[in-house]
Structure formats: structure tokens, C-alpha cells
């Protein structure tokens, strides 16, 4: 039995959706979906129905795209209400979410607690000289603006920062309750550390990439592996002896559909053979 991960399937793109049908049967293996499966609930359902038949267990964390509220759609759910509706959808398909009890992995390198997280971001991934209230304008001076500013609403919280703070506090309490004898696999759509956000093409996208509140969580919560997506920069990095895996698939231009999605499934447990202690560059970041 193996634990795999992939993020940023972006099934709104026809090439990505077509490739999903070609994923092979992995028997009892588990698969982590590290956010941004798609923008619409129907895209999540398609992923769950196909992948649920090809893996023994699915785990999902939300990305920013899943939390987008379509414009000009009266009555569409926003913020926390939208997230809760997605959690209900996952549960109907037997998919584990950040709101469920953390499962115990008893396969290779176990036992470990596998913990799906939903932490969001708070604009703290920015240079020290940039003030919080200036960060969006700072990014816009280089023609960078995340679509979240238009479509990801924090309701009922007053801001995304407040929602992030609430999620971090709630999640930290749950992680602190894990048996201290057990190591963990931590899963979050956004990277847990600022120093892992390497976006040479659009460096000023970093404010939408995580929170400094989680920077020590790999040590604090005994992580063996930390899994994230969002950057569309696939690779492995090491911090304090902990393996960090960025597992994005990305948009069609950022991967080779001829290879199929199987080629982009990232082995988490057991880890990849000969995993390097230097991050490997992907094909470019997302907006």
C-alpha cells in the first residue's frame, strides 16, 4: 500500500479533464488531492467518482479555486458557507476533509497521522519592508493580482486574514491533540513556509501563498512529510530533516498530457527513490 499526492488538477481545462480518465487502478493505495481540483462542485464530483474507483481512500484539502464564488450568480454561497458545502459534498463521496478525524496511516513508514489542513493565507509572505496594508498595491506595481481579490470572499469573517487566523488557531488545537508518540503527514494547499515560495516569473505573487503562522509546524507537529500545491512548481525540498513535496499538476501548458496524470502522481509514503535534498524546478507558477 502506498500514499500518493497530486494537486491543482484544474479540471475546468479540457485537457486535464480528459486525462483524468486515464489514471490507472492503484488498488488500496491512498491519494491526497492537494486543492484546486476545479472551480465548480461538478468538477470535484467527477474527480471523486473517477479516482474513488482507482484508489482505496481519497483525502482532500481546499484550494483557492474551489473557494471562488462565481460572479453575477445571485444567491451563490460565499466564504465559510461555500467551504462547508464542499465538505458535505466530499463526505457524500467518502472523501476525508480537514473537518474529519485525521486517519492513521499503517502502511510503509507508519504508523503516522495523515492530517489534511485548511489554513488559507494572510499576506504575511511578503518582504519585511512592505507593510501589510500596502501589499496588494506593491504586487500590482508589477502587474500581479490574484483572482482571489475578486472571487474569494471571507464571509462571515471581516477579511481573509481573519479567516486565516481562525483556521490556524482551530487547526493548531487539533494537531496538538494528536498522540505525541505519532509523527504526521501535513497536507495544505498553500505552502507552510515562506522560504519555499520560489516564483521567479511572478515573485510578487507570494502574498497569496500562505501564512508565517505555520512556518514551524513541520517541527512543532512532528511532520515526516509536508504536502502542498498552489505554486505549480513541482519539486522536493528539505527543511530540518523534513521532506516538503510540492505536488501540483497545473494548467495544460505546465505538464505533458502525453505522459498522462499517472506520471505526475507524487509518492509520499514510501518516499520517492533517490529524493534530492535540493528542490527541482517545475514549469512555472499560477495566478
CATH H-level superfamily = Metallo-dependent phosphatases
Tally of strands? 10
In the CATH hierarchy, the third-tier topology is known as Purple Acid Phosphatase, chain A, domain 2
Q: How would you spell out the order of helices and strands?
A: EHEHEHEEHHHEHEEEE
Main β-sheet, spatial strand arrangement = 4-5-6-7-9-8
**CATH class type:** Alpha Beta
Describe, in plain words, how this protein is organized in 3D.
The protein has 287 residues and is α/β, with parallel strands linked by helices. The protein has a single domain, classed as Purple Acid Phosphatase, chain A, domain 2 (4-Layer Sandwich). Helices cover 22% and strands 15% of the residues. It contains seven helices and ten strands. The strands form two sheets. It has a six-stranded mixed β-sheet. Strands 3-2-1-10 form a four-stranded mixed β-sheet, covered by helices on one side. The radius of gyration is 18 Å and the shape is globular. It starts with a strand and ends in an 18-residue tail after the last strand.
